[in-house]
């Protein structure tokens, strides 16, 4: 069992069989690559398909590492190229704030895993941007200078700290989403 693959005791929620060319959606659910593409084929061609489990729009489909290693198989290569085409169409779209908040746990979990794993590499510029954003927001959170001071307004003064933290996390997630779209969009 790969650590980046679907859970060992899980099955595809579309075909109810074992995973064949598993891929993970931005909502963190796992599907067979062929099943989720079939779902997309039968839906609207102008908008991303919706997750059959949580009904959120799927804007990014990430194949597992095991699927990527089987790329020389023609069937797998065809499905991965269709996944890349899907990611090119819907991965870079600007989505609503609600959708970005829904994608936040998925993207941050994958980002942390990629940054801590020495066998995965993120470009140095991306790592620097992530570290800089986190460092600057940490400095703001820890500094006594605030837009809304806690000393005067009490608990309401923490609102600006929460907003800065949220903006930082959304920015870091957007940076990492662009890396994923580049990696899995066939560019």
UniProtKB/TrEMBL annotation:
Spans through the membrane: 122-142, 162-182
UniProt keyword Transmembrane, yes or no: yes
Protein name: E3 ubiquitin-protein ligase RNF170
Domain of life: Eukaryota
GO molecular-function terms, A-Z: ubiquitin protein ligase activity; zinc ion binding
Organism per entry: Opuntia streptacantha (Prickly pear cactus)
Pfam families: DUF1232, zf-C3HC4
One GO cellular component term: endomembrane system
Protein keywords: Membrane, Metal-binding, Transmembrane, Transmembrane helix, Zinc, Zinc-finger
Biological processes per GO annotation: protein ubiquitination
Membrane topology: Multi-pass membrane protein
RING-type domain segment(s): 12-55
Classification via InterPro entries: DUF1232, RNF170, Znf_C3HC4_RING-type, Znf_RING, Znf_RING/FYVE/PHD, Znf_RING_CS
Intracellular or extracellular location(s): Endomembrane system
Matches recorded under SMART domains: RING
Membrane is among the record's keywords: yes
Primary localisation category: membrane
């Amino acid at each position: 069992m790969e650590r980046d693959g679907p859970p060992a005791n899980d099955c595809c929620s579309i075909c109810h069989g074992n995973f064949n060319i598993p891929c993970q959606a931005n909502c963190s659910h796992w599907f067979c690559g062929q099943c989720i593409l079939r779902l997309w084929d039968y839906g609207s061609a102008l908008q991303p398909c919706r997750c059959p489990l949580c009904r959120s729009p799927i804007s990014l489909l990430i194949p597992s590492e095991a699927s990527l290693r089987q790329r020389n198989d023609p069937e797998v290569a065809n499905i991965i190229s269709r996944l890349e085409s899907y990611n090119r169409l819907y991965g870079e779209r600007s989505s609503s704030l609600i959708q970005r908040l829904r994608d936040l746990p998925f993207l941050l979990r994958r980002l942390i895993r990629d940054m801590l794993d020495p066998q995965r590499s993120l470009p140095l510029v991306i790592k620097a941007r992530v570290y800089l954003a986190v460092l600057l927001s940490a400095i703001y959170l820890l500094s006594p200078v605030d837009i809304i001071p806690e000393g005067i307004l009490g608990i309401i003064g923490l609102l600006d700290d929460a907003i800065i933290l949220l903006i930082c996390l959304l920015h870091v997630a957007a940076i990492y989403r662009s890396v994923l779209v580049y990696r899995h969009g066939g560019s």
